Amino acid sequence: MKRRSLDGMHRLLPAAALALATNTTLDFGIAGVQKGGTTALAELLRAHGACVGPHEVHFFSHARSGPEPRWRTVHDRATRACAAAQPRGFDDPAFSFYGAGAPAEVAGLAALAPGLRLVLVLREPIQRARSQHGMMAAGAKSRRVLRGRPLEVLARDELARNGTRDPYDVVRRGLYHEQVEALAGFDLHVAVAERLFAGGYGAVFRFVGLEPPATYVDVFRRQTKVPSALSPAALELLAAAYRGPTDRLYGAIGVVPEWERWYADRGLPATRVRR
């Protein structure tokens, strides 16, 4: 397993060492998760000197042609768009979700790009599901899929289906332990979305090869929307669905205090893992 880091625990490599540590001219990728703040993070990095080229590249979620042709397309688009001196990357909020269901393709990409660094932004999974449900209600195509179902009914239907990955899965996208395990072959930095929302950007900047500035463009606060209401039924169902998987995630990355406080404020039982 390659190096894995959580916010605030990644050692900064000097620029020369970063250049030597990679066999690709594409330096990093924002690998998920959907509704975790990936678009805002890409905008923030662009505003401070990185070049985040292709947006939402859908690396694993589109046609299964094998990783090499798609990697070459993403790589070429990003390198053409970016100056040589910039840290260069891509943004794919579905990368980790679909990658967890395509282990051979993930392994193939890791072999093609052994120096690629991935940032995985994880948001508390119940709130992430609520945000996705709101996004679905706002889109013409996704509204037809939603058919007016509240979040708890959509989630219950998904759990009953228990099939292959679907673009409109609201529960399975929050099974983060699967996604962290799937990306273990990469140099992976796990960022907590709630810390980014609060302005804790420094660790991500260092990881992608940028020196943190004295002040930041306030991208996250500008993009944050008032969330839709979370019904007691949805809260109960999702809390039960995520408790075990979140324990497994904590076993890999440690407890996320921001999530635990959110659970405590709503009378939800604490997770069993304590590290």
Describe the structure.
The protein is α/β, with parallel strands linked by helices. It has one domain: 3-Layer(aba) Sandwich (Rossmann fold). Helix content is 48%, strand content 10%. Helix 8 crosses helix 13.
Give a concise summary:
The protein is 48% helix and 10% strand.
User: What's the number of helices?
Assistant: 14
Count every beta strand, where a strand is a DSSP E run of 2 or more residues.
Answer: 6
What is the domain total for the residues?
1
What would the CATH topology be? Rossmann fold
Please summarize the sheet with the most strands. Answer: 6 strands, parallel
Q: Could you estimate the helical fraction of the residues in percent?
A: 40-55%
CATH superfamily: P-loop containing nucleotide triphosphate hydrolases
Whole-number mean pLDDT = 86
Low-pLDDT ranges = 8-23
Which helices and strands appear, and what pairs or packs with what?
Layout: E1 4-6, H1 15-20, E2 28-30, H2 38-47, E3 51-55, H3 67-81, E4 88-91, H4 95-99, H5 103-112, E5 117-122, H6 125-138, H7 140-146, H8 151-161, H9 176-182, E6 187-192, H10 193-197, H11 202-208, H12 219-223, H13 232-253, H14 257-265
Parallel strand pairs: 1-6, 2-4, 2-5, 3-4, 5-6
Helix pairs in contact: 6-7, 8-13, 9-13
List keywords for this structure.
275 residues; alpha/beta; six-stranded parallel β-sheet; globular
